[in-house]
Amino acid sequence: MKTLDEIKQFYESQLLGELRRLETQRKQAMRNSFIVFAAAIVIALVIGGIFTAASGNPIALLIAIVIAIVIAIAIGASVSASLSRGYKTEFKEKVIGQLIRFMEPGLSYQPQQCITQDVFRQSDLFQQRIDRYHGEDCVSGKVGQTEIVFSEVHAEYKTTSGSGKHRQTHWHTIFKGLFFIADFNKHFNGPMVVLPDTAQKLFGSFGQTLQSWSGRGELVRLEDPEFEKQFVVYGSDQVEARYILSTSLMQKITQFKQKTGGQIYLSFTGSKVFVAVSMAKNMFEPAYLSCAADFGCIQEYYQDLALAIGIVDDLNLNTRIWTKS
């Protein structure tokens, strides 16, 4: 993977010209949005004035002004959203795509695609019913010897309250963030999941009892106190679970959690490792209301990509200490 200095050189030699062109396009789109907004207000006010003159009712002028503002906001917002989508799509294709290919030539980028809901389900990390699912920014290919794919994912379930006309739908996030899959180069005898240990943090020693009631399978006891403070492990094969979760790998997972600062979920299923990293932000979304041409923005995209691509090194996946049977 490329260093930050190499990224800066690439930015200056390859990206800066494209970024300046896109910045000109962004400013023009902002001007067009303002013109449409202003024109919508003028037209609505003229129509309102004609209506007021015809009706002879001064209250109609106030109503016309309110209607004009509402219409102008709606039209302006619609046009602005359309221009924004066009700018963001081109930005991702021309800038983020180039950046990914420069960092790892073996990777490809599909900004409109994401890991499918069926594959997300196969990880067995989140067992809630999914009522709404979407994502974007799919990256796939090879890093060294390891096949990977990752994307942003947002999975939700819904609840309702009230009845009749007062019935309301509430959406709740199951997971939002980076979802990563890699070939582990080993067929597992059974699934194993590594989850944030919320029960023990909340309830202390009684939390261990709650963990065993989770319905996730057999609780795996490990010998790394720091790891066990952060995570709880369930697996169908105790011997294999301890074999896979070596002291070195547990330390790497703990360090990876510290680096991300978010909740980390892992599962080892089939011959793949699934990693989910909770994130509030959209990783590769360019700012529409501010300039995205300076190197600070590119550095942030680089750091997000380095986090995702770096999972291969963080979990030592290219070492190939196992072979598939």
Output the structural class: alpha+beta
Strand order of the largest sheet: 1-2-3-4-9-8-5-7-6
Compute the number of structural domains.
Answer: 1
In the predicted model, the low-confidence regions spanning at least 5 consecutive residues are 199-207, 209-213
Specify the number of helices: 10
Average residue-wise pLDDT: 84
Helix content: 40-55%
Element string (H = helix, E = strand): HHEHEEEEHHEHEHHEEHH
Shape: flat
Beta percentage is 15-25%
Radius of gyration: 26 Å
Question: What gap, in angstroms, lies between the N and C termini?
Answer: 30 Å
* Secondary structure tally: strands: 9
Main beta sheet: strand number and arrangement?
9 strands, antiparallel
Characteristic key phrases:
9-stranded antiparallel beta sheet, 50% helix, 325 residues, 23% strand, flat, alpha+beta
Describe the structure.
It is built from ten helices and nine strands. By secondary structure, it is of the alpha+beta class. A nine-stranded antiparallel sheet has the order 1-2-3-4-9-8-5-7-6. The longest helix has 52 residues, at 4-55. It is flat and about 85 Å long. The two termini are 30 Å apart.
Layout of SSEs?
Elements lengths: L3 H52 L3 H45 L3 E4 L6 H6 L9 E12 L2 E16 L6 E16 L8 E5 L1 H6 L1 H8 L5 E3 L4 H6 E5 L2 H7 L2 H14 L3 E6 L2 E7 L16 H15 L1 H4 L11
Antiparallel strand pairs: 1-2, 2-3, 3-4, 4-9, 5-7, 5-8, 6-7, 8-9
Helix pairs in contact: 1-2, 1-9
